[in-house]
Write a structure and sequence with these properties.
single chain, 231 residues, alpha+beta, Arc Repressor Mutant, subunit A, 3-stranded antiparallel β-sheet
Length: 231
């Protein structure tokens, strides 16, 4: 008997991830992040076994992102390939450990048919299945697929963790870690604000029904956190 037999089919418009994965540190292209979300949409959060093959189609990618079929054809192949080498870093502060893994371990692209098959790595499994009873969040994939900036997608995910309250407080260190922005990049808050923060907030405001505002939070004279308010 299949371990997943009693579960309903996953809602492919939704992507569910553990909070640890949402807050993990990584950087990838927008196509790779879109492919990652679409692959996550094939997994039921209560699913016991995720070792099987899952698939996405270029036509579906094109429809949901608004790109041409030829671009979608290229994006799903290159994006999935990128997921086989992008390092996802999570931290366990209690155990004082750092874990690194990749998302996809195998893929097969059907060139003349415009679709691919892939399998998740066993190391990413704890972050995307058997999540009942653990901290996790489900987001609307189609909302995230609208964005053309990686940082916008990541900010949207981080905010949606707190959509019940409409307020997300996060330290500068944590948001830079989630965005995988190295210390030497945008060392001054002014540069981070202009190059990363404001364009991401603007894109969310323009492409969703959310109205996002943000305020700096200071410790003494230094900005140490950001407070996002949205409804």
């Amino acid at each position: 008997m299949s371990k997943n037999k009693r579960l309903k089919s996953p809602d492919t418009s939704l992507a569910t991830q553990s909070n640890k994965l949402i807050e993990a540190s990584y950087k990838m292209s927008v196509p790779a992040k879109r492919v990652m979300l679409m692959l996550l949409g094939q997994i039921h959060p209560g699913q016991q076994d995720i070792s099987g093959k899952i698939s996405i189609e270029a036509a579906d990618y094109a429809k949901r992102t608004g790109v041409s079929f030829s671009v979608a054809y290229r994006d799903i192949k290159n994006g999935c390939r990128e997921l086989m080498r992008t390092i996802i870093t999570t931290k366990n502060f209690k155990a004082k450990t750092i874990e690194e893994c990749v998302v996809v371990q195998w893929m097969k692209y059907h060139e003349k048919e415009g679709w691919l098959e892939a399998t998740f790595t066993p190391w990413i499994a704890p972050f995307i299945h058997k999540l009942r009873g653990l901290g996790y969040k489900t987001i609307e994939i189609n909302e995230a697929l609208k964005f053309k900036r990686f940082h916008t997608i990541r900010l949207y995910e981080l905010m949606m963790q707190w959509d019940a309250t409409g307020v997300r407080l996060i330290t500068i260190l944590d948001i830079r870690s989630a965005f995988n922005i190295e210390k030497q990049s945008y060392p001054a808050f002014k540069d981070f604000r202009v190059k990363v923060l404001e364009p991401s907030v603007k894109e969310i405001n323009e492409k969703t029904n959310l109205k996002v505002k943000w305020d700096p939070v200071k410790t003494g004279r230094k900005i140490t956190s950001l407070k996002f308010s949205f409804d």
